[in-house]
Write a structure and sequence with these properties.
alpha+beta, Aminopeptidase, 7-stranded mixed beta sheet, about 30% strand
Length: about 325
């Protein structure tokens, strides 16, 4: 049995056709996401597969970044490789660490810990979120809502608020103002959303009442999954529970459009602010948590410096 890493020249569309069959597919491993990150300039993108005796058994979209001054570089695989296993990680380590001298960091898309020679815990917890099964009937979905959350949804409907289609440009403008007003940083920047919109299907929704905006939500589709990307909530919207109305409408609209799963886009009991965590948890989805991030390097001084810089950047 021979495993090997094989770079592929797939564009975003070809990559998505390749990886849609993997059950552990998530947003960072889609072709559109990789293209968007590479378009922003800080990262270079590489796509590759792992073959076993000529048959594809895993796939990884890799972001590569040179480290200024220190030298060397980082190979970052977010929620990959798809088809993750100890054997797949060993192949990736051989290619990126031993052959190319890079510091390799991997966030495997599985719940169980992979024990792979040459890897160690990287000091960061795995991705956590929750997913709602959209194959359920709408009445069953409503029954799964937290009681307080459902009451808020009913209040929003009674207030006369409604949801209408939005535009990506309109969402980004409102989102930019929303972030500035809240004064907090996020990796889901307006610039990233604009880049994603050039490569993926994004759907915006706006909540309105008596002609006044209440808030908005942005959803991304990939494979059979719809995922909540970002949202805004204005003060008027908060008083009318527009957040519940927007998320419920977005989820049921994605169900109607054929999505089979709705991912709330990140929900970590330790890292997510309590208000946001409780809001997303109110949908009654099934919580999942991936295994902690892993790292591998060649043990040299340069690798240690790269590792230190990456760990510092990744610290909560």
């Amino acid at each position: 049995m021979t495993d090997r890493y094989v770079p592929v020249t797939d564009d975003a569309s070809a990559w998505d056709r390749r990886v849609v069959r993997y059950a552990d597919l998530s947003l960072p491993q889609t072709g559109g996401y990789g293209a968007a990150r590479a378009e922003q300039g800080a990262w270079k993108l590489e796509r590759g597969i792992i073959e076993r005796d000529g048959r594809e058994v895993a796939a990884a979209q890799v972001l590569l970044r040179a480290v200024p001054i220190v030298g060397g570089g980082l190979a970052w695989i977010s929620r990959g490789p798809l088809g993750a296993s100890a054997e797949a990680l060993a192949v990736l380590r051989r290619h990126f660490v031993e052959e190319r001298g890079l510091y390799l960091r991997v966030a495997p898309p599985i719940a169980t810990v992979i024990v792979a020679p040459g890897f160690r815990p990287a000091g960061a917890t795995g991705w956590s979120s929750a997913v709602v099964d959209l194959t359920l009937e709408e009445a069953a979905l409503r029954a799964r809502l937290d009681q307080k959350w459902r009451n808020g949804l009913n209040k929003a409907v009674r207030s006369g608020a409604s949801v209408e289609p939005g535009t990506l440009a309109g969402f980004i403008a409102e989102y930019r103002d929303f972030l500035a007003g809240r004064g907090f940083a996020t990796t889901v920047t307006p610039e990233l959303l604009a880049a994603l919109g050039r490569h993926m299907a994004l759907t915006a929704f706006r909540a309105m009442r008596e002609g006044a905006p209440l808030g908005s939500a942005l959803i991304v589709r990939y494979g059979a999954t719809a995922e909540y990307l970002a949202g805004t909530l204005l003060e008027e919207g908060r008083s009318h529970n527009a957040g519940q109305l927007l998320l419920w409408h977005a989820m049921t609209a994605m169900k109607t459009a054929g999505a089979l799963r709705f991912d709330v886009g990140g929900m970590d009991a330790a890292l997510t602010p309590k208000g946001i965590y409780d809001f997303k948890a109110g949908l009654g989805g099934t919580v999942y948590t991936h295994s902690a991030e892993l790292e591998a390097d060649n043990g040299g001084v340069r690798a240690a410096l790269v590792r230190w810089r990456v760990r510092r950047a990744r610290a909560p």
